[in-house]
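Please go through the sequence and fold tokens given here and tell me how the chain folds. Record follows.
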Amino acid sequence: MGRLREYFDSNNKRLIDKWVHYFDIYENHFGRFVNQKVNVLEIGVFHGGSLQMWKDYFGPQATIYGLDINPQCKCIEEDQIKIIIGDQGDRDFWRRTIPELPQFDIIIDDGGHYVHQQKITFEEMFPVLAENGVYLVEDLHTSYWSEAGGGLRNSNSFIEYSKNIVDSLNGWHQKPSNVDYLTTSIGSITYYDSTLVIEKKARSAPYRYTTGHLSY
């Protein structure tokens, strides 16, 4: 059992609400940031328990930011935890606010879960994510819910939207090639049940070569 699951199971601080299988995902992608100087943004504060969990996990050099539309969340601030009040589905909010924020190494979208919020947040925040950072979108099962703006194979859902990101990742291999910003800035895309993880990494055009000798 990883440290995050152990923390969750023994939690007697602020309320945390997470799907249990997420903890292995977090450990897989966040472990390299532990005890580093790191800025983490979690969108969706709820009662603030997960912010305290990240503070414990990443250690004393970490600064944890939570973003929520509910102004009452400001009371959750404490040492190493800062709260931003705003609407993740408002592009103007992001564009006003981004210059005032640090560069984030990890962004976790656990916000409103409506597909338009997920798209806007990704489009505004992935470009300013730190090099070698991690962008994680939770609760993608809402992409299959009409009440959240989705539905199975609904072109408006974030699941379908993210399939276009896969195409961008492979932009050099298309005929003709179709290279865009995402082609040159995504190292990997990993899908899990209800979760998408995108690792940021500067890339140049891939190439292949041959070594060894012919055997016949």
The longest strand covers residues 186-192. The chain has a mean pLDDT of 95.
